Amino acid sequence: MPASKNIGYHLLALLTVSVWGTTFISTKVLIESGLSPAEIMFLRFAIAYVCLLAFTYKQLFASSLKDEFLFFLSGMAGGSLYFMAENTALRYSLASNVSLLVCTAPLLTAILFFLTHKNEKLKSNLVYGSMLAFSGVALVIYSGGFILKITPVGDFLALMAALSWACYSLISKGLIHRYSSMFVSRKVFFYGILTILPFLLSQPYHPKISLLLRTDVLLNLLFLGLIASMLGYIAWSLATRRLGIVRVTTYIYFCPIVTLITANLLLHEHIPFPAVLGACLIIGGVYLAEEGIRLKFRKQS
Fold it and tell me: Residue 21 in contact with residue 259, Cβ under 8 Å?
């Protein structure tokens, strides 16, 4: 398919990552207001699930038990495990470490994809592009002062978060071609909620209604639930269906750039030159990786 026809899906993936890159502000506000990471994830997924159920209530279950089990794995990998691993990692490791390690998700996704698809070959352009983009991520994250402190538990959990997202991408790959994006997202939210319950039970969930009705808390929950979760997951599924998991996942490298710009606009933080250089490396790396994948697809067609 001509690349021009896919521009809209590339923009959709970039827009989704841009939204996800700003969620740290809403999450920080909610945590400072007294909600735990597990409670925030539960509430944002619950809001998204209820809204999607209103549009997809005619089909509650998948067409087969196998697909239903795959939805369960998707909800666990792309929901509870990912968010809990990432948020828990922040308690043991530096935020810069976690941000950097979570950005290994695109590379892990590519490696897992080519390991599970023996007929596919890992193209050098994809490897070099990913390495270049990852170097840019490191520059952006550490531009404010190079701080690298190895914390085995926190760093391991951050890598597990990246691996969870890579697994989610692979598991959901087949599902998004057999079901609508809204149905896929709704099932992911449902099983994400179901698998987060053990974490909530270990830390009793007793939110105060007055807290949830506070304007700042309510608006941030609605943003996370309706925009970042519901619309974000639907858009990601649509982009993945058209572009493929390896191509669309490379856009995750843009998250640090979005965070950097958001911090500058909202927090008035200065953007140092190394961060600008890192942003250029990310853009160049993603372009190189995308060109490598596109050339491969052209040869096959």
Answer: yes
